[in-house]
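FW: tagging you since you asked about this chain on Friday. Here's the raw sequence from the shared folder, copied in full. Didn't touch anything.
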Amino acid sequence: MSPPILYRLGTRGAAIRILAALLCVSALVPAAAAPSPWRALAVADVDRLHRSVVELHPGMRDPDTPDFAARVERAHRTAARRAAAATSYADWLTATQGFLLAFRDGHTIFRPNLAPARARWPGFLIDGRAGGWVVRRPAGFAASSTGPGDGARILACEGVPIADLLKARLDGIAADWSKEPERIRQAFRLFVDTRIDGTPPLRECTFEWQGKTETRRLSWDVVAWPALSADFAPFLRNVPHPISSRILASGGQWLSLGNFGDETALETLAKALESRADTLRSAPFVVFDLRGNAGGNSTWGERFARILWGAAAVDARTAEIDGQPGRRAGKYFRGSRQAATAARGLADEFAAQGADFASVAGYWREVADRIARAPGGDRALVHDPCCDAAPAAAPVAPAASAYRRPVYVLIDAGCFSSCVLAANRLIAQGAVAVGETSGQNEEYGEIATPPPLPSGLARYFLPISIIRQPRETLRVVPGIRWDGALDDDAAIEAWIGGMARAAPPAAPAPAPSDGNKL
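HL: got it, structure written out here
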């Protein structure tokens, strides 16, 4: 008897490709000798991923990472071995996703189109918080009489400290455990099992709850995947935060910047704030809420800084930062045909989004043309002059700031890529980072879509640029940590408001001058 269908397809096209692949493999080999269809899918997909990295990833030509090519081949050998032994969707996922996770770079992205119809879990998940992990349930799932209460700190499972167990079970398979933000975002996966038969993954765990330590037996139950996964967003730190502004009851200004990719919404907000800059600058405190911002155009950080602190103050600080001796800077691309094609693809994507994206589309056309004209082809990196270090200049005198009251940048582990760059720019201007550690960048960025996987089971993205930057700016560690849930808006607003009230009074802001005009 054929096994039941256990997975939900993301798109009709993917469904057709998967079905065709499975039927072809089954038809070509006698039943007695037939390997699992998942093996053929995994082998072909791993091969495609490997070729795409070799042809497109800038690390292959980066003089600062001479071991990159060897790392690619090691990762490929591991993935190929896993693919050859694949007998299930979970095995396919371990081989394919594991290959890209081996690069330990958040800009190397794998997004399955297939989701299980069912999964099993012990009635709770865990959420990264305050340097550890606590019990948390998705919305709509109540605690059972025998399960640990929400907020209980998990200490160990089957005698293994939870930190060690999470690393052993998830690193390189479902997450990059070398980075703190991924340890926050991905820990819940330990308690989600897509293999719904056989021995449960864990039998018992130890918790600290209301001052007591207790070990509980786990009871694993099968649950519909859509119901369970519908509220994964708080765990993953990708709760939507619309681009907007509002005035709190305390008078504080809350600027919600949930992404830096929606140029239209960002421009609308920026113009609205510019039109009432005096009102913004009269607020007792200002919050830039960057929770869940996975990136886009990092120049928005400086744009909003100019609106608040004034052009003169921001320009002076920018000159000071750029003029630091020996500051690591510069931007480069592969000189390959595939890199030029990827850049043109990005230009087309932005152009299709309308006039507000014209400048971004124009930039990517210039990049594509520069790569295509590179005299050395793929033998050397192609330099993009956009991000070079500023030439040494005379010291810049600080300019008076148009705003001198508390400013906070609220970040979480979902703040990544351009969000990290923008947060660092706001902090450099005087804002205080609060929340939890941001996502961690590497020096590779600006993702593009390579050729699709033969199976159609997933989409994947690779970085195409090298952006040199100081190592300490690749993530943001908050100056003041929040130990509660990062989606508890009311509690966070009250917490920040209390900090602002307790802050020492600032000197009055200067009267607007030509230097501080927007």
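FW: Residues 7-116 form one domain.
HL: agreed, and The chain is about 35% helix and 20% strand.
FW: great, closing this out.
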